[in-house]
Structure formats: C-alpha cells, structure tokens
UniProtKB/TrEMBL annotation:
<protein>
    <submittedName>
        <fullName>Bifunctional rhamnulose-1-phosphate aldolase/short-chain dehydrogenase</fullName>
    </submittedName>
</protein>
<comment type="similarity">
    <text>Belongs to the short-chain dehydrogenases/reductases (SDR) family.</text>
</comment>
Amino acid sequence: LPEQEAFDIEYWVLEEAKLQRLPKPKPLAGRVALVTGGAGGIGRAIADRLMADGACVVLADIDAAALETAETEFAKRHSADVVRGVKLDVTKEAEVAEAFTFAAREFGGLDILVSNAGISSASPVEDTELSMWTRNIDILATGYFLVAREAFRLMKAQKAGGNIVFIASKNGLAASPNASAYCTAKAAEIHLARCLALEGAEAGIRVNTVNPDAVLRGSNIWKGEWREQRAAAYNMKPDELEEHYRKRSMLKLGVYPEDVAEAVWFFASDLSAKSTGNILNVDAGNAQSFTR
Ligand code: NAD
C-alpha cells in the first residue's frame, strides 16, 4: 500500500476500535519472529516482550533442555499457539536453513529476526588460544551472518519487507580489557548490520543493532566464568562488579534483560519505521564513551 493510504487505514481502524470500545490491536499481532539464543537470558526477555505484544515467536537455541523449559513457560504465560522451539547451532549452515523453514511452516512466514545467540570469553591476548579466537568469530560474527542471510532469503521471497535486530554489545564499540576476541567479533556484527541495512533497504528490510552494556541479571554470561575474568581485569572482586557498572554509567543505573528487550521491541515495531542501519546503546549512558 502507498504510505499515506496505509496510515489512513490504520488510523481509521484505531478510530473505529475506539468507537466500538474494542481493545486496541496489539502492535505486533500477526507478526512472526525468530529469536536466536531465545532460551537464554536476554533472548528469553526479548521473546517474552514480543509475545506480549502479539507476535508469534520461534525460539532457536543450541541448548535443547533450556529450549524445552522456555517453550513450556511461554506456553503457560502466553499461549501454546504463539511459541515454538527449534534446536540449532548458528554456526551450521544446514541447521540455520532448517530453522527458518520450520518458522515459515509453523507460522506461515517470518517478519522479524533477532540475532542474539552468543557466548563470552575473556583472556589476555597472549593467553588467547586460536581455538578461542575462532569460536568467538564463528558463533558471533559468522553466526550472525548465517542467520541474517537466511532471513534475507526468506524475507525477499515473501516480498513484504522485514526487520532484523542484532544484539551486539558496547564491547563492539569500546575496547574492553582482556576480551579482544569477543570485542572484535562484536565489532564485526555491528558493521555487518550496517552493510545489511544498505543492502536490504530497497526490499523494505530494516537492520538495526542494540548494544547492551553488561547485563546485570538473568544471563548465563553474567553468572559464569566471564564475570570472574571481568572482575580480575578491573582488579576487583566479582561481587564488586555490579556496583562498578552502575557507578560508571551516567544515570547510575544497572542494565537488565528487560531493558534490552524494550529496545528490540522498538526496532521490531512500526514505531521505528524510519530507522535502519542504526545503533541503540542500552547502557544507562556509559560515561566511558564521553570525554569530560
Ligand atoms: P546467555 O548465555 O544467557 O544466552 C545465550 C544463549 O545463546 C544461550 O541460550 C545459548 O544456549 C545460546 N547459544 C550459544 N551458542 C549458540 C549457538 N552456537 N547456536 C545457537 N544458540 C547458541 O547470554 P546472554 O547474556 O543472554 O547473551 C545474549 C547476547 O547478548 C549475546 O550475543 C551476548 O554477546 C550479548 N550481550 C550480553 C551482555 C551481558 O552482559 N550478558 C552484554 C552485551 C551483549
């Protein structure tokens, strides 16, 4: 539909709904999303947010047990009709292709991809094994490429545009101590998103990036070995780290999975219809990015 016509129709549908005291349609009703790493901390919060606004969501994750738990929880919280789980390793071309075929078969297409599946690692460069370097590049940079490529193929075939959101990291913009492999892979994701925004624009495919700072709850990354390594890099104890991140933010606030989910929701919805190739930092204003 021409832009003005689509706007008019939406406007009158909303006016009509008001008149009839009908509930306002949910902004993502009828949309289908695939969230990689959807059984993990941030991915789960994103899936929850999208479902709350009416989207059907495919959780795509390498962890079969976590997938089963997440699918069961979402079926109870929302409805079994709006959630599916599919096991995939984002580094495996065939598994990625199968996950998208699964989404199209289960829900009739795909409107939104959230590329989020990830790992973390930290070590001084002189101790970084080639295998650790390659693992970061494979899962983060190449994994994001593989899922975005598959989304492009499907979205272009559907001829209805689409939305791709990358969960990168503040570490893809700002260097962080003892995390060169992770930071480099995250920088690659950010630049890949910008290249894809340029390539997708004509087909109505928008590609945006959300960059969280350290997410202080709910993520396996935050619970794991990474937290100890981060603390060591800053010469502090692991339980001092949360306060460190809060203090260094301009707003003196911590970042949580739900905050990242809100930013994703914005890019996935029509509210951001005029945004592509953009980066939204969710970091409570990381003061390290500013010169004072
Ligand atoms: P998490 O470990 O809680 O969740 C990650 C999920 O990805 C897990 O469910 C895991 O099973 C899945 N996964 C890992 N490797 C996979 C693979 N090869 N194929 C498919 N799925 C795979 O971590 P999280 O904190 O929720 O991280 C999500 C994203 O957010 C990552 O890309 C991470 O780099 C990014 N991020 C996290 C933080 C943070 O502080 N937690 C900060 C900035 C960015």
